Amino acid sequence: MQKRNILFARELSIKVFEGRCALNHLLVGNAFEYIETLSGYRAQWAVMEKHSFGINRFEFCGLHFGYLKYVDDLISALKVLVYKNGDSTSLQDTCPTATPVRQAVFINGFPCKNPATIIASDFKTSRLNHAGNTDNFRRSTTSMVTAAEFPGLNTLGLSIARTDIAVDGLVFPHAHPRASEMFYVSRGVVIAGFIDTRNQLFQKTLREGDVVVFPRGLLHFSLNAGFDLATIFSVLNSQNPGTVSSVDALFEPAGSDALLDSLLRTRLLNLSATKADPMSA
């Protein structure tokens, strides 16, 4: 029993050392597997501490039982390191999206251009410098620029969007499964909100210069509460945030304009009037 415990303590020491190296050098390529392994060792160590197994309660093979606190902190730090960004960390300065004629290999993201062919234009876009067409039943439009359209965004963990909402227009509830969103009002007055997993509504009235954030994966919406065109710019922490529209998922696109207008526009306006934050105005 004593020999087995000594070997186990050595293994735990090695795993803790590997974890410190991962933190020091940001080597998180296999961090998910490592966190699971270290968590398993930590659970075994907790059992040993609980039952004591004839081991000195305060020190064993140079490891204190209070060491569990250090291991817990290490696991937490690694989790923060892994989850801090929406996308994985870039391993080079720049990686503009390459656009091969035929893609033979499919990877999680986009391949990089040949460094010798990278130019300044890869890092500039004019896709958001003009208002979109709001001549539709929503009276709004959103233009999103991801790494697919803007090569310079590749590996940066960012996307940018512009939303224009005409008077009485709105953006129906939708979610971004891979990103949180920072929503900045450049012009006009907007009511914006999101709904959490408890079905609780959080919303504010926003004016020029105001910012609100939408947590990743939660349904959110916005509507024009002013008397002029509203313009919003958004930054999302993923180069490919994805968009899931509850409206498009539930209703047929064709012939449903009147139904959507009746069900959703009225409902959102009622929610805005009855559940508004007292500090919204």
Automatic annotation (TrEMBL):
Name listed for the protein in its UniProt record: Germin-like protein
Recorded GO MF terms: manganese ion binding
The keyword Secreted is assigned to this record: yes
Annotated coiled-coil segments of the chain: none
Pfam families listed in its UniProt record: Cupin_1 (PF00190)
Source domain of life: Eukaryota
Residues reported in the UniProt entry to bind Mn(2+): H174, H176, E181, H220
CDD domains for the chain: cupin_OxOx (cd02241)
UniProt domain Cupin type-1: residue ranges: 126-261
Gene Ontology cellular component annotations, sorted alphabetically: apoplast; plasmodesma
Keyword Disulfide bond among UniProt keywords: yes
Residues that bind oxalate: H176, E181
